[in-house]
Each structure stands twice: as C-alpha cells, then as structure tokens.
Specification:
By secondary structure, this protein is of the alpha/beta class. It folds into two domains: about 1-40 and about 190-423, Rossmann fold, CATH 3.40.50.720; about 40-185, 3-Layer(aba) Sandwich (Rossmann fold). It is about 45% helix and about 15% strand. Strands 9-8-7-6-10-11-12 form a seven-stranded mixed β-sheet. Helix 5 (about 125-140) crosses helix 6 and helix 13 (about 350-365) crosses helix 14. The longest helix has 26 residues, at about 370-395. It is globular, with a radius of gyration of 20 Å. It binds glutamic acid. Glutamic acid binds near residues 78, 151, 325, 353 and 354.
Length: about 425
C-alpha cells in the first residue's frame, strides 16, 4: 500500500474526535450536565434510500443522509458531500462542526450536514442529476430557507446546487433560491462564494502569522489537497508573499523547494481532468511526505484525520491552518501542543465558506446583490474578528486555539439554549 493510500483514508471516528474536543471545552466552561447532553445530541438524523436508474438501465439504490445538529442560533446550515466514505458518524461530526463553525463566526445559523455514499467520479452527469433530484425529493420536509439550507461540500459544487434548487422549487411550486447556497452566479449565487473558503483560510493564515511574528515574504507553505479549498488557499496564500513549496491531490504530492507557480498548477489540473498527475517542474512525493515537510505553514485542505498520533511527532510546520474539516485527529492534539505548533482549527479557519453562504442567503432574501468587493470586505472583517475573539479566549483560558474556538462556540449556543428555554 502506498503512503498516499495510507494517509488519505480517515483513521479515527470523526464523531469521537469532535466529542473529545467538546468535552475539554465543556469542562473549562463548567457546562452543566443537562446542557452538555443537549448540545452533544444531534437534533435530527435522517437516512434515506435513493433508487436511481443508471445509464445502462440498471436501478441502483444509494444511501443518503442529512443530520441537523442544532438549530438554536438559526436554520441548519451545511454542505452535502458525495463520497464513498460517507457514513452516519462522519455526517454527525460534520453537522456538529457546522454548529460550532457558525457560532464562532457570528453567523445566525445552526449546524447541519448531508451526504450520499457514492463515487461521483464514476457517475455520468445524468446519473448525478437524477441522484441529486432523488435526494432533494427525499429531503423535501427537511430542507427549507427557514429550516435547513444545504451547500456544496466534497464532491459537489454549483451544478448540484442548481439541480437541488430547481427540484425543491418545483416541489413547492415557486422559485426558492434561498433554500440552498453555493449556486451558480446567474441563478442567485453570491459573488465571491467559490473563492470564499480559500480566502478565509488565507485571512486566518495571515492573522496567525501576525501573532507569531512570521514574515510572509520569508515563509514557506505546503498545501494538502487541490480541490476548491486547497487550490484557492494556495493561490491566495502565495499572493501574500509565501513560497508554496508543495501541493497535492489524490494522485500524490508535488514538491519544489524553489516554489510552485500555483496559477500554472491550477491551469494544469483543469486541463487534465482536475488532476495534477504529471505536473512538470516538481518532484513527486506522497501526501504523507507533504505533511512532514520542513515548512513554516501547513494547510491540510483534503479531508479528515490526515494528521494523527502516528505522524504528528514528525510535523515540522510552525503553523497549521485547517482548510479541511477535521484534518487533525484528536489523538494528535497533545503532540502538536507539546511541540508548540499553532493550529488554527477548522471551525475557524475554513468558516469563510459558510460566511459567504450566509451572505448569499441574505442577498437571496433581499432580492438585491452585492459587489464582490463588498462580499470580500465583509467576509475578511468577519474572519479577522472571529480570529481575534478566539485568540483572546485562548489567552484567557490558557488553552490552544482549537479549544478556545470550541469554548466561544459552545458558550454562545449554551447561552441561547438557556435563554430560549422550553426544555
Ligand atoms: N461545506 C462547507 C463547510 O463545511 C460550506 C457549508 C455552507 O456553506 O453551508 O463549511
């Protein structure tokens, strides 16, 4: 088995990973047992069977999920993932992370997440459309602009959101753009949404580097993953002056100590079926090797559990900014802490995406659209403020940024839960 295959599969149960951090933060906050139990329990878990006629005439049945973790701050919000690794515990963890992500970023949404166990790369466009429509039909009582608002995640993008919006609108009998975010621009998407997560990762990286006294023009960075988040993070971080010495995707890692031209890598990947295989001007390494490179900044932007107790001791980066959800397993937290690595946690670092999703929903409901400049300015300010709040909380509680982010989020959701009452 190659090192890539080893590292790209989740190694730990993501829900357990989420809960172990939740437990530490809840203890520091002195959260009552009752509230602890309320906040850890997903409000709703829906599992559906989705029969789809494949192009060859066979009927295949897919398993679809939607978990609403908490709706005390507002309607549930969170992406839909198409991947063979989708399972209930993963969706539960991702839904809870959305609750904390929205709370930490001051977004008036709760947390939800969905997924379909499928391999989108092996399906035709027609099959994917029928699957997305079947999922939307099955979730008609779950979704709604005031109830639960999906968005893209791994394996989905604006195209799937367009189908979802259309199917939902047909079923309710009127056009309902605010039911889903991450739509194509022409049908009510927001300017800046495609770049938003990567842009937020860049702002979080810059904020952390400022606190650490790291000079961007003298720093190097490796980015794991070259999908929407990884590629745009790499491009924008490069624009801040850092040298991007390594990038990677499912085909492996690409390393050049003199720096990779990210725009060229993006163009290469787009011209080669969204894969970097054969990218010239870089040495081929594995995804596992990329994580252990001697760089200043590491941005894991691929998937869960890439840094675990097995490789955490070998990490040389001074700063890790989590572009993906859950790339550092809980078992690695203490090891990285002892090494003095600063980790900007997922629920803060990649919140730029849901922030601009919120702006998209606001614009859909207003029926009035903002300029890209306004979207970016507001998103950047939101990220900087959230980072500062988490940073100050980490000083107050003498804890790392991850636990501080959980403290900020859990405290807010707990306060609102108590004020709303009715339990
Ligand atoms: N899937 C993204 C996330 O994990 C975006 C969610 C959204 O925009 O609702 O944050």
């Amino acid at each position: 088995m190659s090192a890539t295959a080893e590292i790209i599969k989740p190694a730990e149960n993501p829900f357990d990973s989420m809960m172990s951090r939740f437990d530490v933060a809840a203890k520091l906050l002195n959260l009552s047992e009752g509230l602890y139990n309320v906040l850890k329990s997903p409000a709703k878990q829906v599992i559906v069977s989705l029969p789809v006629t494949m192009d060859d005439g066979r009927i295949e049945v897919f398993e679809g999920f939607r978990v609403v973790h908490n709706i005390n701050l507002g309607p549930a919000k969170g992406g839909i993932r198409y991947s063979m690794d989708v399972h209930l515990d993963e969706v539960k963890a991702l839904a809870a992370w959305m609750t904390w992500k929205c709370a930490v970023s001051n977004i008036p949404f709760g947390g939800g997440k969905g997924g379909i166990k499928c391999d989108p790369r092996k399906m035709s466009v027609g099959e994917l459309e029928r699957l997305t429509r079947a999922y939307t039909r099955a979730m008609i009582d779950v979704f709604g602009p005031e109830k639960d608002i999906p968005a893209p995640d791994m394996g989905t993008g604006p195209r799937e959101m367009a189908w979802l919006m259309d199917q939902y609108s047909k079923l309710v009998g009127y056009s309902s753009p605010a039911v889903v975010t991450g739509k194509p621009l022409v049908m009510g998407g927001s300017k800046g949404r495609v770049e938003a997560t990567g842009r937020g990762v860049m702002v979080a990286t810059r904020s952390a580097m400022l606190k650490m006294g790291l000079n961007p023009f003298k720093s190097t960075c490796a980015v794991q993953g070259f999908g929407n988040v990884g590629s745009i993070s790499a491009k924008l971080i490069e624009q801040q002056g850092l040298k991007i010495v390594a990038i990677s995707d499912v085909t492996g890692g690409y390393y050049n100590p003199n720096g990779i031209n990210v725009a060229e890598a993006i163009a290469y990947s787009q011209a080669h079926a969204n894969q970097l295989e054969g990218f010239p001007g870089a040495e081929k390494i594995s995804n596992a090797q990329l994580l252990e490179l001697d760089v200043d900044v590491l941005v894991p932007a691929a998937m869960e559990d890439q840094i675990t107790k097995h490789n955490a001791a070998n990490i040389k980066a001074k700063l890790i900014v989590e572009g993906a959800n859950g790339p550092v397993a809980a078992s690695a937290d203490d090891i990285l802490n002892e090494k003095g690595v600063m980790v900007v946690p997922d629920i803060l670092a990649n919140a730029g995406g849901v922030t601009v999703s919120y702006f998209e929903w606001v614009q859909n409901r207003l029926g009035y659209f903002w300029t890209e400049e306004r979207v970016n300015r507001r998103a950047d300010r939101n990220m900087k403020e959230a980072f500062e709040t988490v940073y100050q909380t980490s000083l107050k509680y003498n804890c790392n940024l991850r636990i501080a982010a959980y403290i900020v989020a859990i405290d807010k959701v707990a306060q609102v839960t108590q004020l709303r009452g009715g339990i």
